[in-house]
What does this fold into?
Amino acid sequence: MTQAQALVAAGIRDLTDLGGVVLVFPLMLPITGLLLGLVLGGRYLGRFVLLLTLLGLGAALAIAAVVLVGGDALQYLLGGWSPPLGVGLRADGLSAVMLVTSALVMLAVALYAQRAFPITGDGSETRSSLVFWLLLLGVWGGLNTVFLGQDLFTLFVALELLTFSAVPLVALGGKPETLAAALRYLLFALLGSALYLLGAVLIYGTYGTLDIALLAERIAGADRWPPSLVAAIALMTVGLLAKTALFPLHLWLPPAHAGAPPAASAVLSALVVKASFFLVLRIWLDMMPGLLATAGVQILGAMGAGAILVGNLVALRQVRLKLLIAYSTLAQIGYLFLLFPLAAGAEALALTGGTLQVVSHACAKAAMFMAAGLIAAALGHDRIGELGGIARALPITVLAFGLAGLALLGLQPSGGYLVKTLLTSAADASGQWWWGLVMQAGGLLTAAYLFRVLGYALFGPRADEGRPPNLAIKRPGRVQELVALLLALCALLLGLLPPVAFDLTGVGRAGVDAGAAVSVAMAGAFDWGKLWGDLWPVLIVGLLVLCAVPWPGGRPAADADSVRVSSSVTGRAAAVVGLVFERVDAALRQWPVAGLSLLLLGLGLAGSLVGGA
Amino acid sequence: MSVGLISDVVLILLVLSLAVWITIARTAYRAVVGFVAYGLLMTLLWVRLAALDVAMTEAALGSGLTGILLFAAAARLAPFEAAERARAPAPALRLLIGLLCTLVAAGLAAVVLWLPEPAPTLAPLVAEHLPPTGLRNPVTGVLLAHRAIDTLLESMVLLPALIGVWSVAADADWSGRPGSLPRPPASDALTLLARILPPFGVLVAIHLVWIGADEPGGKFQAAAVLAAMWVLVMMAGLQQPPAVVSRGWRGLLVVGASLFIAIGIAGIWLADAFLAYPKGLAKPLIIAIEVALTGSVAVALALLLSGPPTRAHRCEAGR
It folds into this structure.
């Protein structure tokens, strides 16, 4: 044991001696893989990408270890040119966390998708196989560049690489409706890119540099913010929010994430939307920390709260499982943006909570989409009302779905629990109790749709009643089921990691002691009183929802998806509320309304920043 | 008023009115015609701003190749346009949209006018650090040395875009040839043009790459010229577009970025940094990268215009 430890310590020392050049590896690995893979093509492409993801995970873990042990951010000057002339790379704790998370999800997706995109018998390549594997590498390359880039224009190119790789994944199935979803995604994401670029241009025109660290110095040195800077921040933020699909700019997300093949949905939901969020974080916390003192953070927080409430309520009313998960993503993105108002008062708690939300949601949501993909492949559909019997046929898959759901709704010791506890403490510490209330409501709504799905899966009437069992069931691969289960367990057991692992989040950032914050949150998490206090509301919601699920031999399944969730008065009231939110969501997803929301949001953000410094 | 100022004012008014005309044009075809003219006027504006590299790129890519792409798209969409127009937003809504767009544009223009004078610039810093690269065109210096990573990533972005175009093919057509290029009816004039023009185009492209080290020009402009020549040959029917499964063509697609990355990685040992060039070898290496990238970008651009693979001979029915 001690020998192994010594070996690891020596390895980390060697890597530390190499310095920032190790950052070139995650930057170039996916891109080089894309170039080689395009020429290689054919039968072994899936294995090749799997090998790359293994290498990538190793590299990400090594970088995280070096950053954690060194206690400082890694820096590297590309070509030896220092900014503002050249472009720098930088990995602080946050970057390292993101690198590890995306490499982990990529590895899981690569394992899961080995069987998803088969090659023809004679070994020649197929359209979906080539496109999926190469664009997966494109997405990964874009993500890693976003996490390491320090220059606003390099980050723009990274976003482009990401968008152009992500959009065709949506339409991989080749159906007209997925093509329409992909085009919708493309148009809105390109609008976001254009707004971001416009902002970057204004910043260059004002300060003559695009390097985030240099900009931070120059902006902090000014006694008031020039109008061009205010306009630039508003444009860039709104553009990035459109790419993140933060409510009410989410018109593209539900059809895109629900229409993509499950392996692609997992990447899109778990990672791609986080990249633009990460850039908002870089701009608001690193480039211009003064923004946290403006009313702009309240706008971001309010949109996050809207996302949590609307996303969860509309998720509850979905008929199709993949759409439910897509709306759940919409809601989970909301938690990320509560970080901004909370960071104004309690940065350490808020930032740790937000980072954990990224990690926890990435694992849980990838697991959910994988499980849903296996269920849909087995049944030939993903209608929630007709899931009856699936739990007996695919127990591991349903277990993975359920555990991922528990992690999302925030039971001990999941990542979701830490997120909720840390953000609630941040809300208390900064005297903004209302955000805590939103999170509690969000957790209960998450419990409601989770139990609705599990209720049908466990107790729902079987669609194939009378026929011999398992006739319609196409068995998934054991590896696919296990990958989904392992990802769900990652999210569920995140809180059990040693506190020192969480310290990574705060590296390179003064005054953020993430390990201590997590220790406090985990202390007493398993006291009976605390456990029961967290559990009973979930159980009540669960029981209420299960009562609404028709039992075998009861009403026909299709009926259960109508407006009548329950025949009681409260049930009907809940149904009406749900219907109202569904209408609101449908209206917000119209192009003119989304365009107007974008404009108003930009103006609102700009207005909230005017006169600040 | 000097002649320069008068011509600038005329140019700006023309650009603005063309922009309005493109927006309100009744058919996509007319809008595309307007767009191509708009691109040419923008080229003149860039020349007036002394940004020759930008002007050449705008002419070659913004107006030229994009124009071909949009013409092909407009031709394909023409049968559906009448039905689509019936679903257009109500006039009141369109008026509101126009009004809001004007306000946004005016607001952005005001912000631009507010930018500090004189504008902060890195040009002196670039000039100071140009000698070690052996280049004399500062734009090439920035693109291939100071900010090489951006150029590398930009050339990479073309690949997912191309794969994205291929991805809309039908599964069964995957081994077919691309068939989206417009195929005008065969005529002696077109065939003659497609035989005579390409040698000159190739010469121009070689010239553009070669002088790019010291004068305005470089790989993107040269690649656009090469791509245009090849597209002309394919449109005249003298050559079929290559199948997307062809390994040889895929090799050409990746050779530029691969060489760039290889030289960049060698720099870690030979010049102490990724994407740095060893002393004295900077200029030859940069020219090697430029030449290889020109080939790759030209193939990528031409294949982007050629579209997704279709069943054989479908392309004959293009017009």
